[in-house]
Design goal:
75 residues; mainly alpha; Helicase, Ruva Protein, domain 3; 3 helices
């Protein structure tokens, strides 16, 4: 489902790529690595195919497919 932007400026693309790279570096410091599927979603965001909100929804959907729904304890 692509609802977001179809084109972004070169500057916005660079900003998005930098944010993705910083996030990946932070994850690596914690011993984590994004899956190939997640990297594809990040690439779609960087290309302007997804908004930030849409990317988040795509990642949540991917996580649910891979790991099942997240159940949080209630107080």
């Amino acid at each position: 489902m692509i609802i977001g932007q179809s084109t972004i400026t070169d500057q916005e693309r660079e900003t998005r790529l930098e944010a993705i790279a910083q996030s990946a570096a932070s994850n690596r410091l914690e011993g984590l690595e994004s899956s190939a599927e997640a990297k594809e979603i990040f690439a779609r965001f960087a290309a302007g195919e997804l908004t930030l909100e849409e990317m988040g929804l795509e990642i949540e959907s991917l996580n649910e497919r891979k790991f099942g729904p997240l159940s949080l304890p209630r107080d």
